[in-house]
Design a protein that fits this description.
Elements lengths: L16 H11 L3 E2 L1 E6 L5 E6 L2 E6 L2 E10 L2 E2 L1 H9 L1 E5 L6 H6 L10 H5 L3 E3 L6 E3 L4 E12 L5 E13 L14 H4 L2 E3 L5 E3 L12
Antiparallel strand pairs: 1-12, 2-3, 2-7, 4-5, 5-6, 5-11, 7-10, 8-9, 10-11, 12-13
This protein binds flavin mononucleotide.
Amino acid sequence: MGDSPGWDVHVADNLDGRERYDLLTSLVVPRPIGWLGTRSPEGADNLAPFSYFAALASSPMLVGVSIGHRASGPKDSLTNIRGTGCFTVNVVDESHVVAVNASSADVAPDVDEFRETGLEKQEATAVRAPSVKSAAAVLECELFREVDLGDAPNTLVVGRVLAVRVRRDVKRRAGSLAIDTASLRPVGRLWGVDYSTVGEILTIPRPRA
Ligand SMILES: Cc1cc2nc3c(=O)[nH]c(=O)nc-3n(C[C@H](O)[C@H](O)[C@H](O)COP(=O)(O)O)c2cc1C
């Protein structure tokens, strides 16, 4: 047995914000990207990516997205979700990664990132929000809960998925509604400006009781 290399222990309260961000977002990887389509009550459409994003439950179907605040106030996505009570989550695949990045630009609330990035939009079926027409699948969500995250300049938005729209040409797993991951070609967020694609898929049967 070789010697243990030992540990660097970073006490969270002794780190600055940048250090905490770097450690957390380089270790919790890859993160799925919730690409949120929203609309302001005045009718301005908005598209932005969020990788503090997760599936939370399936019955009901719940997803969570942690939206940061700017010094000037909440980001447009949060303002819109508060105003209309709904949003779409557009699944990000390899064909979208450049547009995803472009849609993260910090622009004025009345700027439509669909138009800026040249993405065609499509109206959701179950909520009044725009979605990305070329997305392989879209989760159409209503606001379920807004959770204050204490000192964090973030708000956790929990969305209840009312409808899941899957493009007909997306391959399914035989005998189920599950989507074939290899053909979906999803993209994850790593640290900073790094993204990941799906590598080798390991299929490991669960242990028997
Ligand atoms: C891949 C990616 C992931 C991001 N994840 C988050 C996130 O989880 N939370 C957040 O507040 N901002 C995140 N951002 C930054 C927002 O997308 C950016 O602030 C955007 O301008 C917000 O748009 P909005 O003001 O239209 O809501 C991310 C950016 C990129 C490129």
